Amino acid sequence: xxIQNAWLLRTLRDVPADAETAGHQLMLRAGLIRQTAAGMYAxxxxxxxxxxxxxxxxxxxxxxxxxxxxxxxxxQPAELWRQSGRYDVYGPELMTxxxxxxxxxxxxxxxxxxxxxxxxxVINSYRQLPLTFFQIQVKFRDEMRPxxxxxxxxxxxxxxxxxxxxxxxxxxxxxxxxxxAYCRIFNRCGLNYRAVMADAGAMGGDGDNxxxxxLADIGExxxxxxxxxxxxxxxxxxxxxxxxxxxxxxxxxxxxxxxKLEYCKGIEVGHxxxxxxxxxxxxxxxxxxxxxxxSELIMGCYGIGLSRLLATIVEQHHDQRGIIWPxxxxxxxVHMTIIAVKNxxxxxxxHQLYDRLAEVGIETLLDDRDERAGVKLHxxxxxxxxxxxxxxxxADEHRxxxxxxxxxxKEVVHVEKALELLL
Length: 423
Ligand code: ATP
Ligand code: MG
Ligand code: MG
Ligand code: MG
Description:
The chain has helices at residues 22-29, 45-64, 78-84, 86-90, 112-120, 168-188, 235-241, 278-283, 306-316, 344-359, 373-383, 415-422; strands at 33-37, 40-43, 68-69, 75-77, 95-98, 104-107, 131-140, 155-165, 193-197, 209-215, 221-226, 232-234, 261-276, 286-288, 294-296, 298-305, 318-319, 322-323, 334-338, 364-367, 387-391, 399-404, 410-414. The protein is an alpha+beta fold. The strands form 6 sheets. Strands 3, 7, 8, 9, 10, 11, 12, 13 and 16 form a 9-stranded mixed sheet that branches. Bound molecules: adenosine-5'-triphosphate and magnesium ion (MG) (3 copies). Residues 201, 268 line the site of one magnesium ion (MG).
């Protein structure tokens, strides 16, 4: 059977002029995404495969943490946003529209209002609590400066979760579980990140909140980390505990008062909030308590920018020649290149190997294009799939070249040995 995945290899030789970060350039050059309008992108098949891997990791960890998946509409009645008071807080970042009956809608930038209004009718006893729900869905924000491809889009993919409790103790317990789930997610994605105390911004709420910041020089956030205790905070938050104008330069840790603060740049990939009754209060979401008295639901919310996470992984994992995917999120595990597609021995051996890999569930991208060998090997470096197999001049001895994208060593091995190495 003909294998059709080589057409995925629509790489760009030149660096796109308007792509400012290394990650954005690589994502365009490797053919993961294509821009359709400012801050809007099509996920091409290779990019979508990575996104699906991220979704699978996030789903697994959310379910492990006791959250159940649902899906809310992207369009929300503007009236709900007026009730919560956020119609004005979000201001021009909110994308709005009217239907044929002249009713106003908001294209959801986040879903606190929507979930609160749904759950108000569903949760009818404190005995059902705690409950946590999550969804994976597009969000819309009319960002002033869409930037660096998927890092700051106007339409982007988010995993957002919401927890419901009868009291703050319950919220704190679930919050701790979600915090751990976030650490597991970012560890599994191979990210170098820090969890820091943060400012609640437009989400509001009166409890703690944390941002998960992936370290990167091109990041828009600045964090301060103590070199002696556990203290770590976004400078926006640090500013609250310091005198006006000193965050960014302050040397001494405000928590232990001994350690030195170190500053670094990063990308916000996740944000978790203890909202309390902010939304249940404004939207009137209550539940009858133990003594029959109605009390407002206590809530938490937890977001991860999945499309931003994809772009962040590329920012952290590349070299001069291209992307170096962490195995857990790679679009394919193996990139097999046939040097001379007109050579029947090479073709036959490559297809046999491909079929055997498929049988054991190893995802393989087969480059059987009639192109120069140099072009194909160059593309394999750029796309960055973890294991490379080159079927070339040693094919008549059933031998192939085997190498890892993350290392410089190559070896020529028998196909049986190559299979052994992969299993
Ligand atoms: P930022 O400070 O970068 O504008 P935010 O604080 O406004 O982000 P939240 O409201 O906390 O974002 O949303 C949860 C998550 O959604 C963020 O941690 C981030 O990963 C992601 N996110 C937010 N805005 C965007 C965007 N424009 N494009 C892609 N991902 C985004
Ligand atoms: Mg924002
Ligand atoms: Mg932020
Ligand atoms: Mg945030």
